[in-house]
Design brief:
With 137 residues, the chain is mainly alpha-helical. It has two domains: 1-44, no CATH class; 46-137, no CATH class. Helix content is 44%, strand content 9%. It is built from six helices and three strands. A three-stranded antiparallel sheet has the order 1-3-2, with no helix packed on it. Strand 2 and strand 3 (39-43) form a beta hairpin. Helix 3 runs parallel beside helix 5. The radius of gyration is 15 Å and the shape is globular. The chain starts with 8 loop residues before the first strand and ends in a 10-residue tail after the last helix.
Length: 137
């Protein structure tokens, strides 16, 4: 396998299939195909609330009071991005005591925390359509 470019990760099984079928990957800022055929991507933060696929975070947002039926809910999207980034950063710092550890985090925070802790690409759980079968779960 050719070396994956800096900032990119190998696409998961669903992303590879999407790229083969449509030529694009949901949430991808960039996609590249290596000489050996490996599809690699760099994901971006969601531009719209509708782009957030994470079922746990969407449910949590609804229970928190966000109108999750509005696909353009900027407030919900901004909340998700801020919580995800906070979780991602806490995990990367190796925080021993924090919201994730004491059970007070949101599911959006957990998405970021778990992606970083597992070594997945940033925003994986945001866009993952089936974490049980994507090959990253």
């Amino acid at each position: 396998m050719t070396q994956i470019p800096s900032g990119f990760h190998a696409a998961d099984l669903h992303q590879q299939q999407s790229f083969r079928d449509t030529g694009s990957i949901n949430g991808a800022a960039k996609v590249t195909v290596l000489p050996d055929g490996t599809v690699c991507t760099r994901l971006r933060p969601p531009h719209r609330w509708a782009a957030v696929v994470s079922p746990l975070a969407r449910r949590f947002a609804g229970l928190t009071g966000f109108v999750i039926s509005n696909p353009d809910n900027a407030e919900a999207r901004d909340w998700y991005v801020a919580e995800y980034n906070a979780g991602w950063q806490a995990s990367r710092r190796g925080t021993e005591h924090g919201p994730f550890q004491d059970g007070t985090s949101s599911d959006a925070y957990d998405d970021g925390y778990l992606d970083a802790a597992a070594g997945r690409m940033k925003w994986h759980l945001t866009y993952c359509t089936d974490h049980d079968t994507c090959g990253e779960g």
